[in-house]
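Tip: read the tokens left to right.
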């Protein structure tokens, strides 16, 4: 299945993330794909902040690789795999267990190779010709996402 949105502002990217957040539960994984500057971290930051009981800074995990947050229902893992050299390093980060026990947002999911969760939601962000414009495309094969995304709108 597939849903697409044309986004004209960073605020709309944040709105989509915040609208998706309350639909997520432990074991949900979102794979965020896009070029540098496409809005992956902005989307993840807005989603994570909306799930936190106490507001806190949500930095990019570019250098730490993984940031973990205490959500109301479960932990929220935000990973940036850009700097990984080999998929075997994913296991060292603890991500394999987190796929079952947390809500996971993974930037640069191509680094997962064969470790990619089959039931994950793929979100691709692509810059358009407009300065702040983006195309956001969500694709999934697991039917659990059908109901979660049925009323997901701008």
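Filled-in amino acids:
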């Amino acid at each position: 299945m597939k849903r697409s949105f044309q986004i004209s502002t960073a605020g709309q990217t944040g709105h989509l993330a915040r609208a998706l957040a309350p639909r997520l539960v432990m074991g949900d994984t979102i794979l965020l794909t896009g070029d540098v500057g496409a809005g992956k971290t902005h989307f993840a930051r807005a989603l994570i902040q909306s799930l936190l009981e106490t507001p806190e800074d949500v930095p990019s995990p570019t250098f730490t690789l993984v940031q973990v947050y205490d959500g109301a229902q479960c932990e929220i893992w935000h990973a940036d795999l850009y700097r990984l050299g080999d998929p075997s390093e994913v296991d060292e980060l603890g991500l394999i267990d987190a796929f079952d026990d947390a809500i996971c947002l993974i930037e640069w999911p191509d680094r997962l190779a064969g470790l990619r969760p089959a039931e994950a939601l793929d979100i691709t962000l692509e810059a358009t010709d407009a300065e702040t414009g983006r195309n956001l495309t969500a694709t999934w094969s697991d039917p659990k996402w059908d109901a979660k995304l049925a009323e997901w709108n701008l």
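Residues 4 and 137 are 4 Å apart (CA to CA). The first helix runs from residue 10 to 20.
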